[in-house]
Amino acid sequence: MTSIFQIDWISVDIIIIILLLLLLFSVKMFKITHRWRYSFSNQALEHICFSQARKKSKNQIFLTKKWCLTRNSSLKENFSNLPLILIFRTNYKRKLLRVFTEGLSSYGFNVINIKAKINHIPDSRILEKTLIDEWNSLISAIFDDFKLTEVLIKSKYILISHSKSIISYKQILSGSDIKGAILINPKLNKKISSDYYNIFKNNSINGQIYTIFSRKSTFIFKNKHLIKFLKEITPQKNNILKHLTIEKATYSFKYYETIVLGMIIDIIENKLLKSKI
Question: Can you give the pTM of this predicted structure?
Answer without folding.
Answer: 0.77
